[in-house]
Amino acid sequence: MTEAGVHGERYEARIARAIAHVEAHPDEPLTLERVAAIACLSAYHFHRVFRALTGESLRSFAERRRLERAILLSRRGQSWKVASASCGFASPASFARAFRRVYGVPPSAFDREAWWDARPDRTEVEAVSAFFLRPAPPLDPDFAVTLEQRPAARLAAARVWGGYLAPGKLVAAYQSLRAWADEQGLETRGGRIVGASRDDPDLTPLSRCRYDFMIELPDGLNPPPRFSVAERDAGLWAVTRVKGDLAAVDRAWSSLFKSWLPASGLDLRDAPAEEAYLQLPEDIGWDAFDLECRVPVADPPDGGHHA
After folding, report:
1. Distances (CA, A) of 239 to 125, 270, 293
2. What is the pLDDT of residues 204-229, one digit of tens each?
3. Helices marked H in the chain
4. What is the CATH T-level fold of the domain 6-119, as seen in this structure?
5. Which of 67, 59, 60, 69 is nearest to 107 (CA)?
6. Sequence spans of domains, the chain
7. Which CATH class is domain 146-297?
8. What pTM, to 2 d.p., does this model score?
């Protein structure tokens, strides 16, 4: 469903706004009426539109995202009890029931590698990501990372669902955003256009993975109905530059997350990492990359910069 709703706002933007609310408030009670109101739709129409665009109900989506977040928090050292409470589950028992329903085992018995081996889209996902299965690479002393404070920003976002399975959708979304930015006289080179995966393909079914192409909006400029508006909080970012093919980009992300970040002592912030395109596909094609990998990190407790 892509037809325009009232006031010309398309359904994709409305659903993106509703999803942003759900993900920003994982510990709040979820009601269809409340989330539908955020999307400016009736509960009946919201249910139909949400399922048509995402392939699942609001309840299933919210439960899956809360479980994925709980797994992430457990990997950062939180107990299942603490992680489940922070993700909005009313009790350890309700969390265990939901976990077993989605992953087939209780949380205490969850083996991520075994689950990954049994996932129905394993063949496809192996071509995209097996990030968690790879050991941390040795930290190259020449692997350069800078820490940068970036201000809060509003961004126009072109969202793609299932782009890993249909790369043409990713190209079309990028081209649509780039064309609009050019029409508005916005600078697009030098890292102004960024990409962000909203889901972890190692956990999320590829058909439900979201990828956003985004560009910062100057004050007073609103995007057309086919784009949504995203908010980026002010904060600290760890940044490294990579030039090369897709394998080089993959190595940079692996080094940044698995080697440099643990050695730095910094914690991740709850925000998506970004790829900032220093050179655009129009300049170097779709098989070569010149970009910055940007990871949102928390300010160090002492206020200093960590290696």
Report:
1. 26, 16, 6
2. 888 999 999 999 999 999 999 889 99
3. 11-24, 32-38, 43-54, 58-75, 80-86, 92-103, 112-118, 122-126, 167-183, 246-254, 261-264, 281-284
4. Arc Repressor Mutant, subunit A (1.10.10)
5. 67
6. 6-119, 146-297
7. alpha beta
8. 0.83
